[in-house]
């Protein structure tokens, strides 16, 4: 038993899709979330910078005494998950393996699509993981650089969003039976993506899959929190404006949450 | 990636229900199975003896170079899972936590039934685990000492089996909405148990739940086997007669498997 919170990090608001799933599957667990919206999106940045930023978010979460860290960002997972997992003595989960594993189980045709940020797609991490587990699968990858910014600016219901999604995804339509949403921002665009791909295509929400793994690892390491929800805590931090983050968080999580601004350089200077 | 087999141990044939589930969910993984049918059932034995026997099975599996061990026996899990997990440097799974966790998720009424061997029920392990995770749940436990012997002697389709199950389970009928099959032998009696309890009661197969956890831990520790099934291996060992074990194994796994007799004392004497 361990009543400390689970830490989530993301380049911005995308990881909230993972938290929403956590609140559904494990509503009694406490949460600390840090979104680096001031520097989002991570996707187009060089690997070394993504590594440095992600480590800052990890160090911030460690100051909050978390019992587990979920790297709720595909880009950060692609670049630095293994290194962080090796370095820390608490469990560290990424979102790529759970998504890959679910896609393999789902696909009948053996043709899996993956959409993600430019860095996630360039890293080829989904294709690598999927093909290592299931060499017979064909993976069609597509970078969608404009999706995460639409979500960060909360334009997901605009006609521009619809147009961008339709145009971007055209190369995958009709070619796969399973599509991995390889960026935690993308479930916010899910209805549009499902429309483009058609109802028979199974969308894999890598964040939701990750929460199933969180549950198993809490059991395995015996660090569940007691299901007495009264005194559980939820803390949300953003490196950008509280208002923008809160607008999306309230909407996505379906309740009013308290969001605090954090200046990482200041917060970590004595660390 | 790790192409070594997963090791399963049980007091007898019950753990085959876990292997069947593994073959369904993860058909590419290699298997080494040891069933201690010569000394089954473990349920009525004293804890110290169960501890000693289980450690022998673990040592046997280690001689087979397994990458993970599944204690596919609730009784052994109740007595010695934590000790074995601490002692080994490969992942060791028991069947109790996955079953408890699934029961909590399933129950709407908050009333969960658990059936198991006398030792499992006396250990109170399911009630402890369930109530630690979810204190508001009520757990009704029932020892069913006659079930595992029916399965070991392959009398699951006899009218005697039906009579025994109906009589034994009467105290739980109408009292719970979820029932944990807290012994890996019991899924072989599932149709009868479902009939007694009624169609609205959700039966939790702790073994099947455990395989979901196996899959997650293979991912987390990055020890999956490549999904090239050609050269995968399956080895089944029993401490009792090959014929009796094979009859049940073939029937339950739906294919003819090769079963070898093993004399544990001899096998381990130079260990």
TrEMBL record, chains A, B:
<feature type="binding site">
    <location>
        <begin position="42"/>
        <end position="43"/>
    </location>
    <ligand>
        <name>substrate</name>
    </ligand>
</feature>
<dbReference type="InterPro" id="IPR004391">
    <property type="entry name" value="Glu_race"/>
</dbReference>
<dbReference type="Pfam" id="PF01177">
    <property type="entry name" value="Asp_Glu_race"/>
</dbReference>
<comment type="similarity">
    <text>Belongs to the aspartate/glutamate racemases family.</text>
</comment>
<dbReference type="InterPro" id="IPR015942">
    <property type="entry name" value="Asp/Glu/hydantoin_racemase"/>
</dbReference>
<dbReference type="GO" id="GO:0008881">
    <property type="term" value="F:glutamate racemase activity"/>
</dbReference>
<dbReference type="InterPro" id="IPR018187">
    <property type="entry name" value="Asp/Glu_racemase_AS_1"/>
</dbReference>
<keyword id="KW-0413">Isomerase</keyword>
<comment type="function">
    <text>Provides the (R)-glutamate required for cell wall biosynthesis.</text>
</comment>
<feature type="binding site">
    <location>
        <begin position="184"/>
        <end position="185"/>
    </location>
    <ligand>
        <name>substrate</name>
    </ligand>
</feature>
<keyword id="KW-0961">Cell wall biogenesis/degradation</keyword>
<feature type="binding site">
    <location>
        <begin position="10"/>
        <end position="11"/>
    </location>
    <ligand>
        <name>substrate</name>
    </ligand>
</feature>
<comment type="pathway">
    <text>Cell wall biogenesis; peptidoglycan biosynthesis.</text>
</comment>
<protein>
    <recommendedName>
        <fullName>Glutamate racemase</fullName>
        <ecNumber>5.1.1.3</ecNumber>
    </recommendedName>
</protein>
<keyword id="KW-0133">Cell shape</keyword>
<dbReference type="InterPro" id="IPR033134">
    <property type="entry name" value="Asp/Glu_racemase_AS_2"/>
</dbReference>
<feature type="active site" description="Proton donor/acceptor">
    <location>
        <position position="73"/>
    </location>
</feature>
<keyword id="KW-0573">Peptidoglycan synthesis</keyword>
<feature type="binding site">
    <location>
        <begin position="74"/>
        <end position="75"/>
    </location>
    <ligand>
        <name>substrate</name>
    </ligand>
</feature>
<feature type="active site" description="Proton donor/acceptor">
    <location>
        <position position="183"/>
    </location>
</feature>
<dbReference type="InterPro" id="IPR001920">
    <property type="entry name" value="Asp/Glu_race"/>
</dbReference>
């Amino acid at each position: 038993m361990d009543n400390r919170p689970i830490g989530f990090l993301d380049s911005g608001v995308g990881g909230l899709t993972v938290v929403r799933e956590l609140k559904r599957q494990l509503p009694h667990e406490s949460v600390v979330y840090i979104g680096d919206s001031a520097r989002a999106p991570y996707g187009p940045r060089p690997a070394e910078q993504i590594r440095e930023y992600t480590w800052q978010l990890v160090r911030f979460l460690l100051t909050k005494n978390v019992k587990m860290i979920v790297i709720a960002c595909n880009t950060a997972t692609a670049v630095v998950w293994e290194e962080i997992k090796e370095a820390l003595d608490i469990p560290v989960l990424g979102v790529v393996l759970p998504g890959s594993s679910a896609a393999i189980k789902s696909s009948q045709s053996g043709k899996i699509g993956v959409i993600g940020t430019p860095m996630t797609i360039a890293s080829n991490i989904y294709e690598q993981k999927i093909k290592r587990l299931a060499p017979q699968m064909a993976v069609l990858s597509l970078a969608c650089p404009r999706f995460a910014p639409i979500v960060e600016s909360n334009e997901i219901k605009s006609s521009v969003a619809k147009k961008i999604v339709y145009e971007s995804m055209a190369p995958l339509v009709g070619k796969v039976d399973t599509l991995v949403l390889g960026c935690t921002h993308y479930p916010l665009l899910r209805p549009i993506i499902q429309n483009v791909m058609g109802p028979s295509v199974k969308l894999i929400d890598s964040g939701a899959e990750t929460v199933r793994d969180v549950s198993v690892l809490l059991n395995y390491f015996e660090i569940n929190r007691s299901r007495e929800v009264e005194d559980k805590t939820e803390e949300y931090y953003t490196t950008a404006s509280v208002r923008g983050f809160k607008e999306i968080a309230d909407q996505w999580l379906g309740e009013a949450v308290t969001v605090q601004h954090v200046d990482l350089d200041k917060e970590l200077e004595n660390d």
